[in-house]
Write a structure and sequence with these properties.
The protein is an alpha/beta fold. The protein has one domain: NAD(P)-binding Rossmann-like Domain (Rossmann fold, 3-Layer(aba) Sandwich), CATH 3.40.50.720. 37% of the residues lie in helices and 14% in strands. Strands 1-7-6-5-2-3-4 form a seven-stranded mixed beta sheet, with helices on both faces. The structure holds NADP nicotinamide-adenine-dinucleotide phosphate (NAP). The site of NADP nicotinamide-adenine-dinucleotide phosphate has 29 residues, from helix 1 and helix 5. NADP nicotinamide-adenine-dinucleotide phosphate binds next to helix 1 and helix 5.
Length: 262
């Protein structure tokens, strides 16, 4: 079940506060090509946001349940090719500031969604390049991007920073050492961000576990669960898929955005 780590959500704001719901939000989403990230982009566009999508690649067709016109109005969606494994590929403060504009009433949301599950396996067998990539995508890129955004002149604008984590951050399970470690370290970074801004009513930090959902990442997890007896609790992942219990990323995105915007 999708869940916010609301214990770190120090400043829950309501949509009906002045300057929040009636203005165009500027939303930055990583990992926008598929899965939860693509669904979040669709939902944010439907809600009227301006969206900066950071991805290595992008869909070349509108989603089936996307905007009625098929494509968002010009300027509402900026597709910015980014390899999150390469810090040099991340947007600069000047680029972010140009996207955000200067409207003081326009709220800002940054969603660190991109993630990689690999490498899976016992420590000692891990591919070194895959370890570096996982740390870069799951941890370093969210740290650097947040640091860059907070260096921009945000003035009195409302800022919500979301880190998409996983229950794996809190389970010591064989084979998932890298994925779980990066998510747990990411949580600590964003808990620290929340602490640093606990007296700042403009800044809200959310750590969200979307729960198991029907995406490519979950298919990768299932592959390991099917073929690798080393995977603890492997039957649960296979059975939930066989019973058709995995929610679509579109459904999860709607639930998450509804809760983040309350
Ligand atoms: N699926 C689940 O059951 C589940 C459960 C708990 C938590 N989560 C978390 O939810 C988030 C979304 O997961 P998902 O299931 O939607 O994953 P997914 O289907 O595998 O999609 C991952 C996204 O991250 C992007 N990405 C990966 N490496 C990248 C890189 N180097 N540079 C730029 N983008 C990169 C991918 O883009 P490319 O197309 O370029 O690869 C893709 O858009 C992740 O943080 C994940 O840890 C997922």
């Amino acid at each position: 079940m999708p869940a916010n780590r609301s214990d770190y959500d120090h400043k829950r704001r309501r949509n009906d506060r002045p300057g929040y719901s009636d203005t165009v939000r500027s939303t930055i989403i990583t990992g926008a090509s598929r899965g939860l990230g693509a669904a979040l982009v669709d939902e944010c566009l439907l809600a009227g946001d301006r969206v900066l999508a950071l991805s290595r690649r992008f869909r070349d067709h509108p989603p089936a349940d996307g905007p009625p016109s098929g494509r968002p109005p010009p300027g509402r969606l900026v597709l910015r090719p980014t390899d999150l494994a390469d810090p040099a590929s991340l947007p600069t403060a000047a680029e972010l500031a140009a996207f955000l504009g200067r409207d003081p009433a326009s709220a800002i949301m940054l969603v660190h969604n991109a993630g990689v599950f690999e490498p899976f396996g016992p420590i000692g067998s891990l591919d070194a390049a895959a370890v570096r990539t996982a740390v870069a995508v799951n941890l370093t890129a969210p740290m650097l991007l947040t640091n860059t955004l907070l260096s921009c002149p945000l003035r009195d604008r409302q800022l919500t920073v979301v880190y998409i984590s996983s229950s794996a951050a809190h389970q010591v399970g064989g084979g998932r050492s890298v994925y779980g470690s990066t998510k747990r370290a990411g949580e600590l970074f964003f808990e620290t961000l929340a602490m640093e801004h606990q007296d700042d009513p403009r800044v809200r930090v959310i750590i969200a576990d979307p729960g198991i959902m029907d995406t490519d990442m979950q298919a990768t997890v299932r592959e390991h669960a099917l073929h690798d007896a080393y995977f603890p609790g492997r039957e649960r992942f296979i059975a939930r898929h066989q019973r058709g219990e995995l929610p679509s990323p579109a459904r999860v995105a709607r639930q998450l955005l509804t809760s983040w915007r309350q």
